[in-house]
Amino acid sequence: MSAYNFGPNHPMSPKRLDLTARLARELGILDLPQVRVEHARAASDDELATVHSRGYIAAVRHVGEDPSRSDPDRGLGTEDDPAFAGMHEAGARLAGGSLVAADAIISGAAVRAVNFGGGMHHASREKASGFCIYNDAAMAVVRLLEAGVAKVAYIDIDAHHGDGTQGIFWDDPRVLTISLHESGMTLFPGTGFANEIGGPQALGSAVNVALPAHTGDGGWLRAFHAVVPQLVKAFAPEVIVSQHGCDSHRSDALSHLNTSVDAQREAALSIADLAQSTCGGRWLAVGGGGYNIVDVVPRVWSHLMAIATGQPVPLRTPVPEPWREHVRERYGRDAPQLMGEDADTWWRSWEVGYNPSDALDRTVMATRKAVFPLYGLDPWFD
Question: Which of 142, 162, 45, 128 is nearest to 92 (CA)?
């Protein structure tokens, strides 16, 4: 999976996948008796074509065969998505990982599945965007629908708007897409506002919470709990698919949010609980953004995997010394000592009250006003 590599100077380093897998194994997560580790296979062209056009797939293959080529109209060979040899195969393998996860849930072989190498949520039907070639999360959702799942809720907590996934399901009432992200006024891709609520046949199927820059743990979790549980419960999905980009962390260079590892772990716990209460625990989680490859990404996604196993790793757990030694030897730096950051993740419940002079509360209320009535919910009280 680390063949998905835009080059040594690109923010999305495949090293983050290697470090995550190493940390999860050192923590014993991958060796738990309830865990099965599957290899990601490359998705076929027919599978990719469930969400992408044949012309686009051919263009990705063409550019990947000769990286000197570019196709900027399709987002290939750009600054965000530089061409590299084997681009098609590498992107197809990330996508195949999410299909393997979906198939395990469909067959009943697993109730929960994680592909931390996935989460390529900016890729649209015809175009690469924002480091994303093929939209694996959307492919997993389609796979679930094709297998007879009636409704899927997609929850995206990446710092960036999940625009590609939203666009693919824009007019599909079977899929609820919820994106909690930094406002497009200050961050790529410049979309994802409260008034984006889905197409004419699926009004209310798209939900966006556009957070003010510099929102921290308390505001981030307040916004999540003021919107996500209410709508997911009203929608009543049979499976939840969630995207766990961790670039909202305060140390991440590609966003302006101020969350912690602790808050992102709490959000994953909340999604797991939501899956348990709404759809019998059936939950497929993918990775996404996250560019602090030592301090943040491996811890957040190891927590995600541990939560999926039903045995969360406590925040005060020491980071295993063999992993820290590997980081010292390979990267010449000290890794975190604990799996958490001793952050204050207290958040104020929406039921306590709405403050119209607070920018965060205004954006939450804008989302609730736009969507809640479509589900029979009161934007002020539910």
Answer: 45
∠ Cα 282 142 15 (to 5°): 75
Computed on alpha carbons and rounded to an integer, the radius of gyration of the chain in Å comes to 19
Average pLDDT, the chain: 98
Cβ–Cβ < 8 Å for 59, 76:
yes
**Contact residues for 73 (Cβ-Cβ < 8 A; gap 6+):** 127
- DSSP code per residue over 144-208: HHHTT---EEEEE-SSS--HHHHHHTTT-TTEEEEEEEE-TTTSTT----TT----TTSTTSEEE
Residue 67 has a CB neighbour count (10 Å cut-off) of 16
Query: Which residue carries 């890794």 as its tokens?
Result: 335
Cα 374 to Cα 162: distance, rounded to the nearest angstrom: 21
Domain extents in the chain: 15-41+92-375
- In this prediction, residue 114 carries a pLDDT of 98
List all residues 6 or more positions away from 284 whose beta carbon is below 8 Å from its beta carbon. 98, 101, 102, 105, 112, 113, 114, 115, 140, 144, 239, 240, 241, 242
Q: What is the mean pLDDT of residues 283-306?
A: 98
pTM value > 0.90: yes
Domain 15-41+92-375 class?
alpha beta
For 23-34, letters b (16+ CB in 10 Å) and e give bbbbbebeeeee
The distance from CA 208 to its chain's CA centroid, rounded to whole angstroms, is 14
Return phi, psi of residue 249, to 5°: -65, 145
Contact, 263 vs 217, CB < 8 A? yes
Q: CB within 8 A of 113, min separation 6: which ones?
A: 100, 101, 102, 104, 105, 283, 284, 285, 308
Report the C-alpha gap between 11 and 336 in whole angstroms.
20
Report the C-alpha gap between 298 and 200 in whole angstroms: 41
In sequence order, the β-bridge partners of residue 216 are: 258
